[in-house]
Amino acid sequence: MNNTEAKFILNAYRPGGPDAEDATFRAALDQAKSDPALGAWFAREQAHGSAVAAKLREITPPAGLREAILAGGRVSGESLAAKPATAARAFWNQPVWLAAAAAVAVLLVVSVSLWPKRAAANAMLTDFALVDALEPQNHGGHGDATGAFQAALSKDTTRLAGAMPIDFGALRTNGCRTVSLAGHDVLEVCFKRDGSWFHCYVARVEDFPGARAKAEPSFTQSGKVAAVAWADGTHRFVVASVAGRAAVQRLL
Amino acid sequence: MSNESFTQLVDAHYTPLYRFALSLARREADACDLVQQTFYIWATKGDALREMSKAKSWLFTTLYREFLRGRRRDSRATSIEDLPPGEQDIAAEEVDCVAKMDAAGVVGALQSVDEIFRAPLTLFYLEDLSYLEIAEALDVPIGTVMSRLSRGKAQLRAALAREESAAKSKVISFPGARGGKQA
Lengths: 252, 183
Fold this sequence. Notes:
- The structure holds 2 protein chains of 2 kinds.
- By secondary structure, chain A is α+β, with helices and mostly antiparallel strands.
- Chain A is 47% helix and 19% strand.
- Chain A has helices spanning 3-10, 26-34, 36-57, 65-82, 85-91, 96-114, 120-132, 144-154, 168-173, 245-249; strands at 177-181, 184-193, 196-204, 214-222, 225-232, 235-241.
- Chain A has a 6-stranded antiparallel β-sheet, sandwiched between helices.
- In chain A, helix 1 (3-10) crosses helix 2 (26-34).
- In chain B, helix 1 crosses helix 5 (103-111) and helix 2 (28-45) crosses helix 3 (55-71).
- By secondary structure, chain B is mainly α.
- Chain B has helices at residues 3-25, 28-45, 55-71, 92-100, 103-111, 115-126, 131-138, 142-169.
- The chains are: A alpha+beta, B mainly alpha.
- Chains A and B meet through helix 1, helix 3, helix 4, helix 5 and helix 6 of A and helix 1, helix 2, helix 4, helix 5 and helix 6 of B.
């Protein structure tokens, strides 16, 4: 084995790592001990690797990730007990649902007694918005189409609750945040008005049938999140925010 | 799987999985999605895995596959022909450079490495998987893992040097430094 071959193998060696005792490395390690030049290279390589590994260990997951995983896991386990796995997976096609799952279940129960009755499709979209608006760390889109839509929503002069100038397909394919709800795409764009953040959710009417294709704005409040839902014949919209119902009403 | 066992599994692995996901996806929100999706798949399919000792490897493998699956829509994978030159000897001062950098800078450099090298390189530095398990997780031969580590390290060193250079070039301006008078 020449030094080039030894370096190639030693590149994959981590002292104290899971394969430190692996026989694959033995000959190359012996060579590093007996060849000063190779040994010096190996020492620098190990020091560099240790420094990078130490920096990587300093990265910690964001707060709330663990709780979201655990909540999602519990809900998944419970739903699996009642449904075939394929059905459960289709519903939870997008990971953000894992974080929202437990809260949605609670909200659905609460809605029976507290909220006005709404068509199932609108309810599903609104319920998702009410939970998702609390998880802005999961948001984030990009692309020109998204930027244009966001700019339109952010304008003080843009009155919501009517038809919106959007190209659903273009937004979805050009970087707008898209989640899968009951197997259908839902777009989400964050925008700011008067210093408050709002979240606009858009779905195609045909993907969520069962409610009127054209619907007047209806308000929902759950905890600190307020939402307004409407439809323009082509799309269903929900705008949700923690800024309160009055702030949401001012958008209309 | 009981809630207690699931919690133990999450506690044991979600941090290194997040680090791996952050290296791949580059954005915190996407990394969180990947980790959550991985554990969701475990919650729905994990019971089929009879050997719990392989859970860690299974989780890393699943996360990587989910990343590839999600990324396939705008696939821009580096082709083998694009592979850069490999081994270059490391200078002693490069070690000090890493030690002085903050973690975000090092991760930023790691994220700039071509994806084909970034995945094995990150798994290598995380030290959770053996190189055999890395090969399994990435579904490539062991020799390919070693080759990609070698080339990936060369790219990482170049990226770290750029990060350090960029950090040094930052200029801090003082009020009135442009010759203006202060009131």
